[in-house]
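fyi for ur records
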Amino acid sequence: MFFKKYKEKAAYKILKKKLAYPTGPKGTSEAKRISSVACLVNLDEFDDVEALRGLSHSLEVDPEHFHILGFSGKNNAYESPGIPVMRKTDLGWKGKIRHEGYSGMKDRHYDLLLNYYSVASPVLALASTGIGSSFRAGLAGVYEKMNDLIINVSPENFPEFKRELVKYLTILNKI
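which gave:
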């Protein structure tokens, strides 16, 4: 019990440092079109994975370049074929995430990272800071410093999120 709390407190401390000094290519002057997308989703809040997969068509991204990584706070919850699901137990010492799906996503660079969660979780936040992307979009409410585009909707209102995301990415010449 003590070690779980210690790991979580250490993860928040590391996250605070990462948010203070953002890394990665930010503020490029040229408007690069989106060709690859990574999506981090809290499956306890939103479990319609097929709707997320349908977002690749709206963003004009090839489905094989659209990767989803789920998170669930419950140990025996949600399993989906083709969607790796992280748990709280995947958080290791010094903020390291020990999950195969995350390791595969961390090694690639994406044009867009979608942070589709509104409940604070150190695992999701550390995963988001560890995945390299040129542009980040997410929901309002938690860890807003890590997102370039913040959309103020609830996770249950996915059609509104999709409409707003496409609208603003079109304005920014990303799609």
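The helical segments are 2-20, 49-58, 100-106, 122-130, 158-171. thats all i got for now
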